[in-house]
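A reminder from the course coordinator: this example appears on the midterm review sheet, so study it carefully.

Given structure:
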């Protein structure tokens, strides 16, 4: 019971006032490129994104790409 109570206090201290848990990996760019890569490799890219949505998603990734790739 003590471990459970400490866990509750720990996560309560991390939680923001609006209810979410902020993290450095919470940005869309952390999750979007691997999603696009996986969907492309498995052949499901066109099932998830229509042509216009795919074009905008790839443009977004390209515009935020670092100079080294």
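Designed residues:
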């Amino acid at each position: 019971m003590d471990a459970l109570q400490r866990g509750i206090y720990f996560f309560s201290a991390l939680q923001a006032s609006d209810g979410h848990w902020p993290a450095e990996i919470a940005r869309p760019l952390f999750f979007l490129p691997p999603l696009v890569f996986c969907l492309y490799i498995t052949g499901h890219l066109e099932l998830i994104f229509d042509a216009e949505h795919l074009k905008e998603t790839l443009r977004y990734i390209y515009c935020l790409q670092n100079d080294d790739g």
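Residues 24-69 form one domain. The CA atoms of residues 60 and 68 lie 17 Å apart.
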